[in-house]
Write a structure and sequence with these properties.
268 residues, three-stranded mixed β-sheet, 9 strands, Lyase 2-enoyl-coa Hydratase, Chain  A, domain 2, alpha/beta, 2-enoyl-CoA Hydratase, Chain A, domain 1, 10 helices, Enoyl-CoA_hydra_C
Length: 268
């Protein structure tokens, strides 16, 4: 792929980053994960191979919007029958869950670059990303409710300690950056926000230079393996690679390795 100038994708919070291999950077302009400030289906453009999610302002997310929450819990009709009110709230929660799970459904890798506070729904959001980097001032915090947008389902498979997860869930205490790194929630901690974004975009460019056939197949297999036994995961990757190993990208990668040259792969 040739370098291209920055351009806005369908979501106004996303911008194409000029590079030899396209990266999509998505910035939350309003730090409220309950609001629609990122695409429902990130990175649909086949020219883009990786998405980086970051935020502007002091914090990555400010948590639940209390006005929105009051309207949601109040329902459209305050005199509504409790069963019907519960059904309406349940539909709203399903919609919000689907919005955050869009990062996981994205066929391309999603990198979350987290600075400052990652509060409430922000924890649900970054738990759905594939890779998480943070700055040294970052902290993670979930308050007030039994989380219902994904963190209680994903964090048990991300953190290295069930005891710590229970402690954080029951107390709502802050998880600082270094501790988040130690327990595996993030894979790198950078000194400040500028270094954080530079590192995330560098990683994205590195991934984007690889075969999109291999990268996207690997993401599907990692997610499948997370939710299935080993034997089913092996069967899944065998079925996946029965098709993917026929790709021209395999020959390109082998030829580049033998010639000590950097391979170039077509978009997928």
């Amino acid at each position: 792929c040739r370098p291209s100038p920055p351009r806005q994708c369908p979501s106004t919070s996303c911008q194409r980053i000029p590079s030899a291999t396209p990266v999509l950077q998505c910035r939350q302009r309003h730090a409220r994960p309950g609001r629609r400030v990122w695409p429902a289906h990130p990175c649909p453009d086949p020219d883009c191979r990786v998405a980086v999610l970051s935020a502007e302002g002091k914090h990555f997310t400010a948590g639940l919007d209390l006005v929105d929450a009051a309207q949601m819990l109040g329902g459209s009709n305050p005199d509504q029958d409790p069963a019907r009110k519960a059904a309406e709230i349940r539909r709203t929660l399903f919609r919000l869950q689907a919005g955050l799970s869009a990062l996981e459904r994205c066929s391309k890798p999603v990198i979350a670059a987290i600075h400052g506070g990652c509060i409430g729904g922000g924890v649900d959001l970054v738990a759905a990303a594939d890779i998480r980097y943070c700055s040294s001032d970052a902290f993670f915090l979930d308050l007030g409710l039994a989380a219902d947008l994904g963190s209680l389902q994903r964090l048990p498979k991300l953190l290295g300690s069930a005891s710590l997860l229970a402690e954080l869930t029951f107390t709502g205490r802050r998880l600082p950056a270094e501790e988040a790194h130690r327990v595996g929630l993030v894979s790198r901690v950078l000194d400040d926000r500028d270094r954080l974004l530079a590192a995330a975009l560098s990683l994205a460019s590195d991934i984007a230079a690889k075969s999109p056939v291999a990268v996207q197949a690997a993401k599907r297999s990692l997610l499948f393996a997370r939710d299935h036994p080993v034997a089913e995961g092996l069967a899944q990757i065998a079925a996946e690679n029965a098709a993917m190993l026929q790709s021209e990208d395999v020959a390109r990668a082998v030829a580049a390795s033998l010639s000590k040259e950097k391979p170039s792969f077509a978009k997928l």
